[in-house]
Amino acid sequence: MGELTRFGISIDEELLQAFDRFIEQKGYGTRSEAIRDLIRATMVEDTWERGDDETVGTLTLIYDHHQHDLAEKLTDQQHANHESIISTLHVHMDHHTCLEVLILKGKAREITRIANDLIATKGVKHGRLVMTGTGHHHH
Ligand code: NI
Question: How remote is the CA of residue 73 from the centroid of ligand 1, in Å?
């Protein structure tokens, strides 16, 4: 570790209380220790998400199938990325709601890009990508 620098953070009282409970559960001795770890973890994850490592990921999407053209747009995007999307599961949850789970395989940054495009499509209510290494090197 290099030289230590102190800096102040402005934070919502309730958020800080929740954070203190969180770090106690995780067994951190001090807030500083917890914050250092979180900063490192976030940056490592970000580097990995933008990296060349081969990975597999699952993307879960929830969307309203009545939203004009949405299902078609999502299908178009999936066809455009067919080399990375190896499987899709579609479940009609109720009259309006569709759940889609995509399995993606390829470079981490490519999977992240495809997932972000799909999640950002207008009408998608919720989306979450979970990536897992394929056993090659990464953090
Ligand atoms: Ni459906």
Answer: 14
**Closest-CA residue to 110 (of 91, 133, 85):** 85
| Integer Cα distance of 106 and 110 in angstroms | 7
Distance 68 CA to ligand 1 centre (A): 14
Tokens of 66: 């009545």
Distance from Cα 96 to the centre of ligand 1, integer Å:
8
Place of tokens 């495809």: 114
Question: Left if phi > 0, otherwise alpha if psi is -120 to 50, otherwise beta: which for 91?
Answer: beta
pLDDT per position as a tens digit, 46-86: 887 888 888 899 999 999 988 878 888 889 999 999 999 99
- Calculate helix-pair angle for 31-49, 13-26, nearest 10 degrees: 90
- pTM (predicted TM-score): 0.68
Residue 119 token pair: 């999640």
Helices (H), 50-129: 70-80, 108-120
